[in-house]
């Protein structure tokens, strides 16, 4: 995935499920192509395959299980995600929290199948621990701001900046994003000014009256 990067997490909202997910993914693709900015989408497992057949922007899973193909029920394997058309996966989102050892296993499992790893972290200490596992991306996302419309980049700039610096010291190859409460172009611009390479967001686009308008605001803030 190219940077700067905007990842739209579809979560399990009705507005981003099934046919609505495909419709929203097409809007993301249209703005991405028109404004030449990288927009990736993270739909539910059940929508990855149908969306990957219709659009040509990066598709991430919202989670994966650290398993190899075999006798596992109710899990989601890296192999299945790869074959469904995902190019990467979120790991340890605060709504799908994992213990540290599981995070390490998920990162390794994703790497074994050449899936890009976008690992979420709730604070600087967790970011430090996760950086030791060398994910492709770490997203600083304070849980208390998720869904709040209060932008992490505007209200916690010092933590965003500290997260970038701490991670770069451990492994300069890890790209840092931030998320939670991102709803306006100025929130994205601020995130980039603080040293991240982009944002992870959900409700600001998924629940918007006009998702295209919000995405264009993001795109114009990056130019
Ligand atoms: O994965 C990003 C998400 O948790 C942030 O939520 O609704 O504040 O953009 P939201």
Descriptive labels:
single chain; 223 residues; alpha/beta; TIM Barrel; 8-stranded parallel sheet; 43% helix; globular; binds SN-glycerol-3-phosphate
Polypeptide structure, described:
The chain is an alpha/beta fold. It has one domain: TIM Barrel. The protein is 43% helix and 16% strand. It has 10 helices and 8 strands. It has helices spanning 19-35, 45-52, 78-84, 100-112, 124-131, 152-155, 157-170, 185-193, 203-206, 211-222, and strands spanning 5-9, 38-42, 60-61, 88-91, 116-121, 137-140, 175-179, 198-201. Strands 2-1-8-7-6-5-4-3 form an 8-stranded parallel β-sheet. Helix 8 runs parallel beside helix 10. The longest helix has 17 residues, at 19-35. The protein is globular and about 45 Å long. The model has no long low-confidence stretch (mean pLDDT 97). SN-glycerol-3-phosphate binds next to strand 8 and helix 9.
